[in-house]
Design brief:
Layout: H1 7-18, H2 23-45, H3 47-55, H4 63-75, H5 82-128, H6 131-135, H7 139-180, H8 182-198, H9 200-229, H10 231-237, H11 240-287, H12 295-324, H13 326-341, E1 356-367, E2 370-381, E3 385-389, H14 396-403, E4 411-416, E5 419-420, H15 426-431, E6 433-436, H16 447-452, H17 460-469, H18 473-478, H19 496-508, E7 514-518, H20 526-538, E8 544-549, H21 552-555, E9 560-565, E10 568-573, H22 575-580, H23 585-593
Parallel strand pairs: 3-8, 3-9, 6-7, 7-8
Antiparallel strand pairs: 1-2, 1-4, 4-5, 9-10
Main location: membrane
Domain ABC transporter: 357-591
Keywords: ATP-binding, Membrane, Nucleotide-binding, Transmembrane, Transmembrane helix
């Protein structure tokens, strides 16, 4: 099987588009490679005049190098003697080493800078992407692209830089070799081209093996993330053995694909070196009896040819790596394009809230076949506590999501003081809303940093005040480390009620205009729920609150209740008014519970 020639221009196009901003840096690498090759080739070529001075014989093999040295020495009034030529040789090789170091350093700098830049850019774009897009992506996929695929893509730019250094040095060495013996150089070049053609099928297989490795990595990333998140369920159900067995299938597949790719890569290197040695041996046998044979010139050209073969081998290996990395480049470019297309629009007018938020004939569906909300209309006055109640799946959380502008409306509008919220600056809007979900997100960090949540401008007094308002301050003070206590992954070291109150302090410290409690107390014990309710009561009239709940006790003190069923509002009013109406759904539910 041979590599599809039509795909090579496509791969080159992918690479050129991905790294076009680095073309000037590549130009500098070309210059560095040229200087390194020139100093190296010129340095080894000085062996010819050295041999001539040692033996007292004239050599005709590389007259242009000897002439250049003669002229330079005459200009500097340096005698053309063995010690001075040896010093020149040493200087040239030291210069070559220094230039190569600069080239390697610059290559590594490009590699690390690009990797850092692409990761930061993708992470920024990921967080700026719309919520509907993000919830449709697998966690393992996002992690693999942002970390794994970007690392491979950064490696490619380093490989391209190395290929440029190798190619420029190859050209210089080939020119010097051609000056010594055109016939040997031409034969070597033709032989190198033949080798490249012979190894083309392996390049194709390496690319396929790389794609298989990438697919295996994707499957493993998703599998591991999914089962780590569900580790508690796995343990409590006693299914560790079954999960491990399933994981072994993925890991074994990854092992087999990785081994296949490694064998193909190493096979090329293992074959290349002996082929080069045999080729050089044949050249020696062929030219040894030639009347024009000179040991000095032939020694130099053998060294140059050996270096040329080394450059060809390095170039072949680098090209293989670049080709095998093409799927990673495509993956990153595809993801970058997707998140850019799904970017949230942030710009808008400043947020102000003086009177009322209104839902006006709002409709929404996650897909065209199944409606979630239908003709939702209600208002929330500033400072009011509005309770949303209804069975699971009725659309309560969706209303909260729409208020936070996580999803676009299907129909209708949401306004604040008569102004459509879609025209308000998105960051400004969301920073004015505090969100308290049932499943609290906490960092594996200190309590203080969880309350602060990346806001470096907050003072210690503000953090303490927020903790007091959330009724968590006394608990924190009882801890040996106080606010500096590490609470573990997702707050595992504290209770559910304590996690919720830490999260509430995080919400309150930012002085939001609106707070959404989305089933925030549904999984708490009675005491923890009472403490959250106490905080809500203390905030009455100061902050506008939307409270979503299953428990009637959570919303009994609301100014207004809205009952949702199957995506529609079926009744609305104050708790007292609804309880006074024996035909209301709320009255019937309350009677059943009590």
């Amino acid at each position: 099987m041979t590599i599809n020639i039509q795909k090579i221009p496509r791969i080159i196009k992918i690479i050129s588009r991905s790294f076009r901003q680095y073309r000037w840096k590549f130009s500098l690498i070309i210059l560095i490679g040229f200087l390194a090759g020139l100093s190296g080739a010129f340095g080894i070529s000085t062996l010819i005049p050295i041999f001539s001075l040692l033996t007292g014989q004239e050599t005709a093999g590389l007259g242009f190098v000897t002439n250049i040295i003669h002229r330079a020495f005459n200009f500097l009034h340096i005698p053309f003697t063995l010690p001075y030529v040896l010093v020149l040789t040493a200087i040239l090789f030291i210069l070559k080493g220094f230039i190569q170091f600069i080239g390697k350093y610059y290559t590594e700098k490009i590699y690390t800078d690009y990797g850092n830049s692409i990761r930061i850019g993708l992470f920024r774009k990921t967080l700026r992407a719309s919520w509907p897009y993000l919830i449709n992506q697998k966690l393992g996929y996002l992690e693999r692209v942002v970390m794994g695929d970007t690392s491979m893509m950064a490696t490619v730019i380093g490989q391209i830089s190395s290929l440029i250094l190798t190619s420029t040095s190859f050209i210089i060495y080939a020119i010097f070799a051609f000056k010594i013996s055109p016939s040997v150089t031409i034969i070597t070049t033709v032989f190198g081209i033949i080798l490249f053609v012979v190894f083309r099928p392996i390049l194709y297989k390496i690319r396929k093996a790389s794609q298989n490795v990438r697919d295996s990595q994707k499957q493993i990333a998703h599998f591991v993330n999914e089962n780590i998140v569900g580790a508690k369920m796995i343990k409590t159900s006693g299914t560790e053995t079954e999960v491990i067995a399933r994981g072994n299938v993925y890991f074994q597949k990854f092992r087999d694909n990785s081994l296949a790719m490694a064998l193909l890569n190493h096979a090329v290197g293992a074959v290349f070196e002996p082929i080069g040695f045999v080729f050089i041996a044949v050249l020696i046998l062929f030219y040894y009896r030639s009347p024009s044979f000179e040991i000095a010139s032939f020694t130099v050209i053998i060294y140059l040819i050996q270096k040329i073969f080394t450059f060809i081998q390095q170039g072949q290996s680098t090209i293989q790596s670049i080709i095998s990395s093409a799927p990673y480049i495509q993956s990153v470019n595809h993801y970058r394009k997707e998140v850019t297309l799904n970017k949230e629009i942030l710009e808008g007018d400043a947020f102000t809230f003086q009177n009322m938020i209104e839902f006006k004939n709002v409709e929404f569906s996650y897909d065209t076949d199944r409606g979630i909300l239908s003709d939702i209309s209600f208002s929330i006055r500033k400072g009011e506590i509005v309770g949303l109640i209804g069975p699971s799946g009725s659309g309560k959380t969706t209303i909260a999501d729409l208020l936070m502008r996580l999803f676009p409306l299907g129909r209708g509008e949401i306004t604040v003081d008569g102004k459509n919220i879609a025209g308000i600056d998105l960051n400004n809007w969301r920073r004015s809303i505090g969100y308290m979900p049932q499943d609290t997100f906490l960092l594996n960090d200190t309590i203080e940093n969880n309350i602060r949540f990346y806001n470096k401008s907050l003072s210690q007094d503000e953090i303490v005040k927020a903790a007091q308002m959330a009724n968590i301050y006394d608990f924190i003070q009882e801890l040996p480390e106080g606010f500096n206590t590490i609470i573990g992954e997702r707050g595992i070291k504290v209770s559910a009620g304590q996690r919720q109150r830490i999260a509430l302090a995080r919400t309150l410290v930012n002085n939001p205009e609106i707070i959404i409690f989305d089933e925030a107390t549904s999984a708490l014990d009675n005491q923890s729920e009472l403490m959250i309710q106490k905080t809500i009561e203390n905030l009455r009239g100061k902050i506008t609150m939307l409270v979503i709940a299953h428990r009637l006790s959570t919303i009994m003190n609301s100014d207004k209740l809205i009952m949702i069923e199957k995506g529609k509002i079926i009744e609305e009013g104050s708790p007292d008014k609804l309880l006074a109406d024996k035909d209301s759904h709320f009255y019937k539910i309350n009677n059943i519970i009590n």
